[in-house]
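Each field is set out as follows.
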Amino acid sequence: MVDTATVLHVDLDAFFVAMELLRRPELRGRPVIVGYPGPRGVVSTASYEARRFGVRSAMPMARARELCPGAVILPPDFSWYAPASRAFHAILRSYSPAVEPVSVDEAYIDVAGSERLFGTPAEIGAAIRERIRAEIGITASVGIAVNRLVAKVASDAAKPDGLLRVPPGEEAAFLAPRPVRDLPGVGRRTADVLAGLGIATIGELAAVPESVLEAKFGRHGADLRRRALGIAPGGVASALPGRRSISREHTFDRDERSAERLRAVLLSQAERVADDLARQQRAARTVVLKLRFPPFETITRSATPGRQLLFADELYDTAAGLFEAAWEEHGRRPVRLIGLGAAGLTERARQLALGETPAPGALHDAVLALRERYGDAVIRRAAELPGPPADAP
Protein backbone atom coordinates (compact mmCIF):
# COMPACT_ATOMS: atom_id res chain seq x y z
CA MET A 1 0.00 0.00 0.00
CA VAL A 2 1.32 3.44 -0.96
CA ASP A 3 2.14 5.66 2.01
CA THR A 4 0.29 8.95 1.54
CA ALA A 5 2.00 10.55 4.54
CA THR A 6 4.79 12.04 2.45
CA VAL A 7 4.98 15.63 3.73
CA LEU A 8 7.86 16.30 6.11
CA HIS A 9 8.31 19.39 8.25
CA VAL A 10 12.00 19.65 9.16
CA ASP A 11 12.93 22.11 11.90
CA LEU A 12 16.43 22.76 13.23
CA ASP A 13 16.39 22.60 17.04
CA ALA A 14 17.04 26.02 18.65
CA PHE A 15 19.08 26.86 15.57
CA PHE A 16 20.87 30.05 16.60
CA VAL A 17 21.70 28.65 20.03
CA ALA A 18 22.85 25.35 18.51
CA MET A 19 25.21 27.22 16.19
CA GLU A 20 26.62 29.25 19.07
CA LEU A 21 27.25 26.08 21.07
CA LEU A 22 29.38 24.69 18.23
CA ARG A 23 31.96 27.38 18.96
CA ARG A 24 31.18 27.71 22.68
CA PRO A 25 30.85 24.08 23.82
CA GLU A 26 31.49 25.14 27.42
CA LEU A 27 27.97 26.60 27.47
CA ARG A 28 26.26 23.27 26.82
CA GLY A 29 23.72 22.48 29.50
CA ARG A 30 23.39 26.11 30.54
CA PRO A 31 20.47 28.45 29.76
CA VAL A 32 21.51 30.42 26.68
CA ILE A 33 19.56 33.17 24.92
CA VAL A 34 20.40 34.61 21.51
CA GLY A 35 19.07 38.12 20.94
CA TYR A 36 19.95 41.78 21.12
CA PRO A 37 20.34 42.87 24.76
CA GLY A 38 19.23 46.50 24.29
CA PRO A 39 16.13 48.05 25.89
CA ARG A 40 14.04 47.10 22.85
CA GLY A 41 15.73 43.75 22.29
CA VAL A 42 13.75 40.55 21.88
CA VAL A 43 14.65 36.88 22.15
CA SER A 44 15.58 35.32 18.81
CA THR A 45 16.16 31.80 20.14
CA ALA A 46 16.42 30.26 23.60
CA SER A 47 18.06 26.99 24.58
CA TYR A 48 15.83 24.31 26.00
CA GLU A 49 17.39 24.94 29.40
CA ALA A 50 16.21 28.58 29.18
CA ARG A 51 12.78 27.52 27.95
CA ARG A 52 12.21 25.63 31.20
CA PHE A 53 12.16 29.06 32.87
CA GLY A 54 9.45 30.25 30.47
CA VAL A 55 11.71 32.07 28.00
CA ARG A 56 10.33 32.01 24.45
CA SER A 57 11.19 33.44 21.03
CA ALA A 58 9.94 37.01 20.38
CA MET A 59 9.76 37.68 24.13
CA PRO A 60 11.14 41.07 25.23
CA MET A 61 14.68 40.58 26.48
CA ALA A 62 13.89 42.43 29.70
CA ARG A 63 11.20 39.85 30.50
CA ALA A 64 13.56 36.99 29.61
CA ARG A 65 16.13 38.37 32.06
CA GLU A 66 13.49 38.45 34.78
CA LEU A 67 12.47 34.84 34.17
CA CYS A 68 16.01 33.52 33.81
CA PRO A 69 18.51 35.90 35.43
CA GLY A 70 21.33 33.36 35.13
CA ALA A 71 21.05 33.01 31.35
CA VAL A 72 24.01 33.67 29.06
CA ILE A 73 22.89 36.24 26.47
CA LEU A 74 24.64 36.30 23.10
CA PRO A 75 24.01 38.70 20.19
CA PRO A 76 23.04 36.99 16.93
CA ASP A 77 25.77 36.44 14.34
CA PHE A 78 24.00 35.87 11.04
CA SER A 79 27.26 35.55 9.09
CA TRP A 80 27.95 32.42 11.19
CA TYR A 81 24.44 31.00 10.79
CA ALA A 82 23.95 31.61 7.05
CA PRO A 83 26.30 28.91 5.66
CA ALA A 84 24.69 26.32 7.94
CA SER A 85 21.23 27.38 6.76
CA ARG A 86 22.29 27.02 3.12
CA ALA A 87 23.73 23.57 3.82
CA PHE A 88 20.49 22.56 5.56
CA HIS A 89 18.32 23.51 2.59
CA ALA A 90 20.77 21.85 0.18
CA ILE A 91 20.42 18.58 2.13
CA LEU A 92 16.65 18.72 1.73
CA ARG A 93 16.85 19.41 -2.00
CA SER A 94 19.03 16.33 -2.46
CA TYR A 95 16.01 14.17 -1.51
CA SER A 96 13.25 15.91 -3.47
CA PRO A 97 12.73 18.97 -5.68
CA ALA A 98 9.52 19.72 -3.75
CA VAL A 99 11.02 21.82 -0.95
CA GLU A 100 9.26 24.86 0.52
CA PRO A 101 11.55 26.94 2.75
CA VAL A 102 9.72 28.63 5.62
CA SER A 103 12.69 30.35 7.24
CA VAL A 104 16.43 29.90 7.70
CA ASP A 105 15.87 26.91 9.99
CA GLU A 106 12.72 25.14 8.81
CA ALA A 107 11.16 23.85 5.63
CA TYR A 108 8.57 21.49 4.22
CA ILE A 109 9.56 18.71 1.82
CA ASP A 110 7.25 16.34 -0.07
CA VAL A 111 9.05 13.05 -0.74
CA ALA A 112 6.32 11.46 -2.85
CA GLY A 113 8.14 9.76 -5.73
CA SER A 114 11.45 9.62 -3.88
CA GLU A 115 10.77 6.32 -2.11
CA ARG A 116 12.44 4.11 -4.72
CA LEU A 117 15.65 6.05 -4.37
CA PHE A 118 15.74 6.76 -0.64
CA GLY A 119 13.21 4.54 1.14
CA THR A 120 10.03 5.30 3.06
CA PRO A 121 9.21 8.84 4.25
CA ALA A 122 10.25 7.83 7.77
CA GLU A 123 13.56 6.48 6.47
CA ILE A 124 14.11 9.69 4.49
CA GLY A 125 13.35 11.76 7.59
CA ALA A 126 15.85 9.73 9.61
CA ALA A 127 18.49 10.13 6.89
CA ILE A 128 17.95 13.90 6.76
CA ARG A 129 18.38 14.17 10.52
CA GLU A 130 21.56 12.09 10.42
CA ARG A 131 23.07 14.18 7.62
CA ILE A 132 22.27 17.43 9.44
CA ARG A 133 24.03 16.06 12.51
CA ALA A 134 27.04 14.82 10.55
CA GLU A 135 27.47 17.69 8.09
CA ILE A 136 26.41 20.70 10.19
CA GLY A 137 26.89 19.42 13.72
CA ILE A 138 23.44 20.25 15.08
CA THR A 139 20.14 18.42 15.52
CA ALA A 140 16.76 18.62 13.80
CA SER A 141 13.25 17.39 14.47
CA VAL A 142 10.98 15.96 11.78
CA GLY A 143 7.22 15.61 11.57
CA ILE A 144 5.64 13.43 8.88
CA ALA A 145 1.98 13.54 7.85
CA VAL A 146 -0.41 13.81 4.90
CA ASN A 147 -0.34 17.63 4.94
CA ARG A 148 1.74 20.54 6.14
CA LEU A 149 -0.47 21.49 9.08
CA VAL A 150 -0.24 18.11 10.80
CA ALA A 151 3.44 17.68 9.88
CA LYS A 152 4.21 21.00 11.58
CA VAL A 153 2.44 20.00 14.80
CA ALA A 154 4.20 16.61 14.67
CA SER A 155 7.67 18.16 14.40
CA ASP A 156 6.90 20.44 17.34
CA ALA A 157 5.78 17.38 19.33
CA ALA A 158 9.00 15.55 18.39
CA LYS A 159 11.29 18.28 19.72
CA PRO A 160 14.05 18.24 20.52
CA ASP A 161 15.99 15.87 18.24
CA GLY A 162 13.11 13.55 17.35
CA LEU A 163 10.97 12.20 14.53
CA LEU A 164 7.20 11.64 14.66
CA ARG A 165 5.00 10.18 11.92
CA VAL A 166 1.22 10.58 12.00
CA PRO A 167 -0.35 7.69 10.05
CA PRO A 168 -2.94 8.62 7.40
CA GLY A 169 -6.43 8.74 8.89
CA GLU A 170 -5.19 9.44 12.43
CA GLU A 171 -4.78 13.21 12.10
CA ALA A 172 -7.77 14.16 14.27
CA ALA A 173 -6.86 11.65 16.97
CA PHE A 174 -3.28 12.91 17.06
CA LEU A 175 -4.34 16.55 17.38
CA ALA A 176 -7.21 16.01 19.81
CA PRO A 177 -5.38 16.05 23.19
CA ARG A 178 -3.11 18.98 22.32
CA PRO A 179 -3.76 22.57 23.52
CA VAL A 180 -5.53 24.80 21.00
CA ARG A 181 -2.46 27.07 20.85
CA ASP A 182 -0.57 24.16 19.24
CA LEU A 183 -2.82 24.43 16.18
CA PRO A 184 -1.13 26.61 13.52
CA GLY A 185 -3.15 29.76 12.96
CA VAL A 186 -4.56 29.93 16.49
CA GLY A 187 -3.04 32.97 18.16
CA ARG A 188 -3.47 34.34 21.65
CA ARG A 189 -6.65 36.29 20.89
CA THR A 190 -8.37 33.33 19.23
CA ALA A 191 -7.28 31.06 22.08
CA ASP A 192 -8.71 33.53 24.61
CA VAL A 193 -12.07 33.56 22.81
CA LEU A 194 -12.07 29.76 22.67
CA ALA A 195 -11.21 29.61 26.37
CA GLY A 196 -14.27 31.77 27.02
CA LEU A 197 -16.30 29.06 25.29
CA GLY A 198 -14.75 26.41 27.51
CA ILE A 199 -12.50 25.05 24.75
CA ALA A 200 -8.96 24.15 25.82
CA THR A 201 -7.90 21.33 23.47
CA ILE A 202 -7.93 20.83 19.72
CA GLY A 203 -10.28 17.88 20.17
CA GLU A 204 -12.78 20.06 22.02
CA LEU A 205 -12.56 22.59 19.20
CA ALA A 206 -13.23 19.88 16.61
CA ALA A 207 -16.36 18.81 18.51
CA VAL A 208 -17.97 22.26 18.38
CA PRO A 209 -20.66 22.56 15.68
CA GLU A 210 -19.51 24.54 12.68
CA SER A 211 -22.49 26.90 13.02
CA VAL A 212 -21.36 27.89 16.52
CA LEU A 213 -17.84 28.68 15.35
CA GLU A 214 -19.11 30.63 12.34
CA ALA A 215 -21.32 32.70 14.62
CA LYS A 216 -18.25 33.56 16.70
CA PHE A 217 -15.53 33.85 14.03
CA GLY A 218 -17.41 34.33 10.75
CA ARG A 219 -16.15 32.37 7.75
CA HIS A 220 -12.93 31.67 9.62
CA GLY A 221 -14.93 29.49 12.01
CA ALA A 222 -15.52 26.72 9.47
CA ASP A 223 -11.84 26.67 8.54
CA LEU A 224 -10.91 26.55 12.21
CA ARG A 225 -12.94 23.38 12.72
CA ARG A 226 -11.51 21.71 9.61
CA ARG A 227 -7.98 22.43 10.79
CA ALA A 228 -8.81 21.00 14.21
CA LEU A 229 -9.76 17.78 12.40
CA GLY A 230 -6.41 17.79 10.60
CA ILE A 231 -7.92 18.77 7.25
CA ALA A 232 -5.82 21.32 5.38
CA PRO A 233 -5.56 22.03 1.64
CA GLY A 234 -2.43 22.82 -0.31
CA GLY A 235 0.74 20.88 -0.95
CA VAL A 236 4.35 21.87 -0.70
CA ALA A 237 4.87 25.03 -2.78
CA SER A 238 8.12 24.58 -4.64
CA ALA A 239 7.47 26.14 -8.05
CA LEU A 240 9.67 29.12 -7.20
CA PRO A 241 12.70 28.20 -5.09
CA GLY A 242 13.64 30.43 -2.18
CA ARG A 243 11.62 32.75 -0.02
CA ARG A 244 8.25 34.14 -1.03
CA SER A 245 9.15 37.53 0.42
CA ILE A 246 12.22 39.49 1.49
CA SER A 247 12.19 42.09 4.22
CA ARG A 248 14.25 44.20 6.59
CA GLU A 249 13.12 45.63 9.93
CA HIS A 250 14.68 48.00 12.45
CA THR A 251 13.62 48.49 16.07
CA PHE A 252 14.74 51.80 17.56
CA ASP A 253 16.30 51.95 21.02
CA ARG A 254 14.10 54.98 21.63
CA ASP A 255 10.85 55.82 19.87
CA GLU A 256 11.82 57.76 16.75
CA ARG A 257 10.15 61.11 16.01
CA SER A 258 12.35 62.39 13.19
CA ALA A 259 10.90 62.06 9.70
CA GLU A 260 14.40 62.40 8.22
CA ARG A 261 15.73 59.55 10.34
CA LEU A 262 12.76 57.31 9.52
CA ARG A 263 13.15 57.96 5.78
CA ALA A 264 16.89 57.28 6.01
CA VAL A 265 16.31 53.91 7.67
CA LEU A 266 13.68 53.09 5.06
CA LEU A 267 16.16 53.91 2.29
CA SER A 268 18.79 51.71 3.90
CA GLN A 269 16.27 48.86 4.04
CA ALA A 270 15.39 49.38 0.38
CA GLU A 271 19.09 49.08 -0.48
CA ARG A 272 19.46 45.79 1.41
CA VAL A 273 16.23 44.29 0.03
CA ALA A 274 17.31 45.24 -3.51
CA ASP A 275 20.65 43.51 -2.88
CA ASP A 276 18.87 40.35 -1.74
CA LEU A 277 16.62 40.41 -4.82
CA ALA A 278 19.67 40.68 -7.07
CA ARG A 279 21.47 37.81 -5.31
CA GLN A 280 18.45 35.57 -5.83
CA GLN A 281 17.80 36.83 -9.37
CA ARG A 282 14.29 37.80 -8.33
CA ALA A 283 12.03 40.82 -8.73
CA ALA A 284 9.15 42.05 -6.59
CA ARG A 285 5.60 42.94 -7.53
CA THR A 286 4.53 44.31 -4.16
CA VAL A 287 6.14 46.54 -1.53
CA VAL A 288 5.07 46.11 2.09
CA LEU A 289 5.58 48.75 4.79
CA LYS A 290 5.48 47.81 8.47
CA LEU A 291 5.21 50.35 11.30
CA ARG A 292 4.99 49.73 15.01
CA PHE A 293 3.94 52.43 17.45
CA PRO A 294 4.39 52.20 21.22
CA PRO A 295 3.57 50.22 23.16
CA PHE A 296 3.00 47.46 20.55
CA GLU A 297 0.51 48.68 17.91
CA THR A 298 1.58 47.32 14.54
CA ILE A 299 0.21 48.26 11.11
CA THR A 300 1.12 47.16 7.59
CA ARG A 301 0.47 48.81 4.25
CA SER A 302 1.22 47.48 0.77
CA ALA A 303 1.22 48.67 -2.83
CA THR A 304 1.53 46.85 -6.16
CA PRO A 305 2.61 49.34 -8.88
CA GLY A 306 1.94 46.94 -11.76
CA ARG A 307 5.53 46.31 -12.87
CA GLN A 308 8.57 44.41 -11.68
CA LEU A 309 10.54 46.23 -8.99
CA LEU A 310 14.28 45.61 -9.05
CA PHE A 311 16.19 48.55 -7.62
CA ALA A 312 16.43 50.37 -4.30
CA ASP A 313 15.02 53.64 -5.65
CA GLU A 314 11.91 51.87 -6.94
CA LEU A 315 11.35 50.05 -3.66
CA TYR A 316 12.01 53.19 -1.62
CA ASP A 317 9.73 55.47 -3.67
CA THR A 318 6.82 53.06 -3.22
CA ALA A 319 7.55 52.47 0.47
CA ALA A 320 8.03 56.17 1.17
CA GLY A 321 4.60 56.94 -0.27
CA LEU A 322 3.07 54.29 1.96
CA PHE A 323 4.99 55.64 4.94
CA GLU A 324 3.93 59.24 4.48
CA ALA A 325 0.25 58.29 4.20
CA ALA A 326 0.30 55.83 7.11
CA TRP A 327 2.31 58.11 9.41
CA GLU A 328 0.02 61.04 8.70
CA GLU A 329 -3.01 58.83 9.30
CA HIS A 330 -1.65 57.98 12.76
CA GLY A 331 -0.90 61.54 13.77
CA ARG A 332 2.85 61.33 13.03
CA ARG A 333 3.32 59.50 16.30
CA PRO A 334 6.79 58.31 17.38
CA VAL A 335 7.76 55.03 15.70
CA ARG A 336 9.12 52.04 17.54
CA LEU A 337 9.82 49.81 14.50
CA ILE A 338 9.92 50.34 10.75
CA GLY A 339 10.23 47.66 8.10
CA LEU A 340 10.25 47.32 4.32
CA GLY A 341 9.37 44.12 2.51
CA ALA A 342 9.26 42.88 -1.07
CA ALA A 343 6.56 40.33 -1.90
CA GLY A 344 5.04 38.70 -4.96
CA LEU A 345 8.50 37.53 -6.01
CA THR A 346 9.02 36.51 -9.64
CA GLU A 347 11.91 35.61 -11.88
CA ARG A 348 13.96 38.69 -12.78
CA ALA A 349 12.94 39.46 -16.37
CA ARG A 350 12.00 43.11 -16.79
CA GLN A 351 12.54 44.84 -20.10
CA LEU A 352 13.62 48.46 -20.33
CA ALA A 353 10.75 50.93 -20.69
CA LEU A 354 10.74 53.65 -23.36
CA GLY A 355 13.44 56.17 -22.45
CA GLU A 356 14.87 53.97 -19.69
CA THR A 357 18.60 53.19 -19.72
CA PRO A 358 20.54 50.27 -18.22
CA ALA A 359 22.56 52.68 -16.04
CA PRO A 360 20.64 52.01 -12.78
CA GLY A 361 21.18 48.29 -13.17
CA ALA A 362 24.88 48.69 -13.90
CA LEU A 363 25.30 50.99 -10.89
CA HIS A 364 23.45 48.58 -8.62
CA ASP A 365 25.56 45.65 -9.83
CA ALA A 366 28.76 47.60 -9.11
CA VAL A 367 27.60 48.56 -5.60
CA LEU A 368 26.48 44.99 -4.90
CA ALA A 369 29.88 43.64 -5.99
CA LEU A 370 31.61 46.01 -3.57
CA ARG A 371 29.33 44.99 -0.70
CA GLU A 372 29.79 41.29 -1.47
CA ARG A 373 33.56 41.73 -1.25
CA TYR A 374 33.98 44.28 1.54
CA GLY A 375 30.72 44.21 3.52
CA ASP A 376 27.52 46.26 3.61
CA ALA A 377 29.13 49.32 5.19
CA VAL A 378 31.73 49.83 2.44
CA ILE A 379 29.41 52.16 0.49
CA ARG A 380 26.34 53.98 1.69
CA ARG A 381 24.16 56.84 0.56
CA ALA A 382 24.53 60.17 2.32
CA ALA A 383 20.93 59.86 3.57
CA GLU A 384 21.92 56.70 5.43
CA LEU A 385 24.58 58.45 7.49
CA PRO A 386 23.57 59.43 11.03
CA GLY A 387 22.83 63.11 11.46
CA PRO A 388 24.03 65.36 14.31
CA PRO A 389 22.59 64.82 17.77
CA ALA A 390 19.25 66.48 18.45
CA ASP A 391 20.89 68.98 20.84
CA ALA A 392 23.76 69.87 18.49
CA PRO A 393 24.16 73.60 17.70
Notes: The first helix runs from residue 15 to 23. Residues 172-228 form a domain with the DNA polymerase; domain 1 fold (CATH 1.10.150.20).
